[in-house]
Specification:
about 525 residues; alpha/beta; TIM Barrel; 2 domains; nine-stranded parallel sheet; six-stranded antiparallel sheet; about 25% strand; binds (2R,3S,4R,5S)-2-(hydroxymethyl)piperidine-3,4,5-triol
């Protein structure tokens, strides 16, 4: 009898734990197919409709405001820092209570998390190193500038710093593996905007010795040199191989190598997708590295990062630059066959919302403006609403169809246009049809240019033959047959306005007459979803 009870108990416990603990397969992961990428969460493509909280908001007192802002924003993912100085207050003694609070509350609010490991680097400095390290500048030194003075940035060549960071990060990942059975955490950012401001590289005697030594063979591979626009060479020191970019490339190698080791130690415990983020440089003018943060994953050194830190899954741009052409260029530079596109930060301004469409159309995995919460300023409910509104309206439309958007993006079925600073009309080639988009906030004439700032945008999903899902605002769209049907006449078979619900389009009304004649359906201030079918006559 006792044996039978024990046997039944074993089966029951096994069944219960099988329900409570997702299978190992459910660990979030990045997959690629034919140069396109997807972030799989619970086994299927997921798009991060995210928001990043302020730097000092990863504390329990700040969390209620954060959950409420996320809910109002219709976001599905929170990016929040975890702080080395809090996690390891004394060397070797770890405190994961904040992580546990966060996991518990994220579960209650059904929000996924991207944790930001603020450790050796935060915006080029080491201000999140624990106190016990800050007090030992000799053991964990800053880098030395060209004139011999220390710079407010950690040296990337110091093993003691790297080993300490590896230990803390792997302890955190080990803890996550055991504590986050529901996989609230879907990705981890290793460090934050690493590199150095104020010196292109470390000029300490030890660094100088390495600089005069040979370039690591991984960087001398013809494909890597080609991507760096450097002539092929079999061997040499940094200056000989890389000429006037040598200082920057040297710094990049050591920053990336360090972070690659930290990430590898963490992945050995728990292999979540991991990325590094970049403080950008102007993408057009190839400026000198003394004018931006040197050593981080800026567009020109992506090939170095890929060799030095292969364990980092992707490099991601933090978009604070301005100008539509500039931002579109940046986005294109991080959308690569070997680099999934993810925008982990962008300035919280209404005129940056439109880039969400570009990221989706490129099959990106997520988008997350910076500055979600009121940062302890006690904003009034109206002010919070006003702050969240530009992203909230867009996320409201997309949240119920997030899984479909992620899948369509992965399959290459999304195309988009973003209003340019000159408001010019744009076209999208749909094979048998051409879509023509003009920007003007719903005015009747296709040629009106009234959006100021230029915030119009439109996205088309190829649903099937002659059938499209169209989303956007501040623009209008019309179509014409092209190719072999160019001379045929056509009309709308049906135009429906609606929204997504549980994976399916729900029509609210059919648009016809004034709403589709005279230049095609219009999209006003609030983004809308239309399902449009066309027919040749
Ligand atoms: C970029 C950094 O990565 C963030 O942590 C934050 O400091 C923002 N800049 C502030 O604008």
């Amino acid at each position: 009898m006792k044996k039978t009870i024990a046997w039944i108990t074993t089966i029951l416990l096994g069944t219960i734990s099988a329900f409570c603990q997702p299978a190992n397969d459910d660990v979030p992961k990045l997959v690629s197919n034919d140069g396109r990428h997807a972030l799989l969460v619970n086994g299927s493509p997921y798009f991060i409709l995210g928001a990043q909280a302020h730097n000092s908001s990863g504390w329990p007192a700040m969390l209620p405001g954060i959950w409420s802002a996320l809910e109002q924003m219709n976001a599905n993912t929170l990016e929040l820092p975890v702080y080395w100085e809090q996690i390891e207050p004394r060397q070797g003694s770890f405190d994961f209570s904040l992580v546990d609070t966060l996991l518990a509350q994220a579960g209650e609010h059904k929000i996924h998390l991207v944790l930001l490991w603020f450790a050796t680097w935060k915006n080029g400095s080491n201000h999140y190193m624990p106190e016990w390290m800050k007090r030992e500048a000799g053991k964990y030194p800053n880098l030395t500038g060209k004139t011999g003075k220390p710079v407010d940035s950690p040296s990337p060549i110091i093993d003691a710093t790297m080993e300490a960071d590896k230990k803390a990060f792997s302890a955190m990942m080990k803890h996550l593996k055991n504590a986050d059975l529901q996989h609230a955490v879907i990705m981890v950012q290793v460090e934050n905007e690493p590199g150095a401001w104020g010196s292109v590289r470390d000029y300490s005697p030890a660094a100088q010795k390495l600089f005069e030594g040979p370039v690591p063979s991984g960087l001398l591979k013809p494909a890597v040199l080609h991507d760096l626009h450097i002539p092929e060479v079999a061997a040499g020191n940094w200056e000989k191989v890389f000429g006037d970019r040598a200082d920057e490339y040297f710094q990049t190698w050591y920053v990336a190598r360090f972070i690659g080791h930290v990430a590898a130690a963490g992945k050995a415990e728990y292999p979540l997708p991991m990325y590094a983020n970049a403080a950008l440089r102007d993408p057009f003018s190839n400026p000198h590295a003394d004018s931006y943060e040197s050593g981080g994953p800026t567009d020109n050194v992506i090939p170095i990062w890929k060799v030095a830190a292969p364990v980092i899954d992707l490099l991601a741009p933090d978009i604070y630059l301005t100008g539509t052409d500039t931002i579109l260029k940046v986005i294109s530079l991080y959308d690569l066959k070997d680099n999934a596109l993810f925008v982990p930060e962008l300035g919280w301004t209404a005129n940056r919302v439109k880039y969400l469409y570009e990221v989706l159309a490129r099959g990106g995995i997520g988008f997350s403006p910076f500055g979600l919460d009121d940062n302890g300023q006690h904003f009034s409910p109206d002010k919070i609403r006003e702050h969240l509104a530009p992203f909230a309206t867009e996320y409201a439309m997309m949240a119920p169809m997030m899984r479909e958007l992620a899948k369509w993006g992965f399959e290459g079925k999304i195309k988009s246009v973003i209003e340019r600073d000159d408001h010019a009309d744009q076209t999208i080639d749909l094979g048998e049809w051409q879509a023509m988009i003009s920007f003007g906030g719903g005015d009747r004439k296709v040629s009106d240019k009234v959006n100021n700032p230029p915030n119009g945008k439109l996205m088309i999903v190829l649903l099937g033959e002659n059938k499209y899902l169209v989303m956007g605002n501040l623009c209008r769209i019309t179509f014409k047959p092209i190719g072999k049907n160019a001379t045929r006449s056509w009309q709308y078979l049906k135009v429906e306005e609606g929204h997504y619900e549980q994976g399916a389009f729900k029509s609210q009304r059919i648009l016809n007459g004034d709403e589709t004649d005279w230049g095609g359906p219009r999209f006003g201030t609030t983004p809308a979803v239309l399902q449009i079918s066309l027919i040749l006559r």
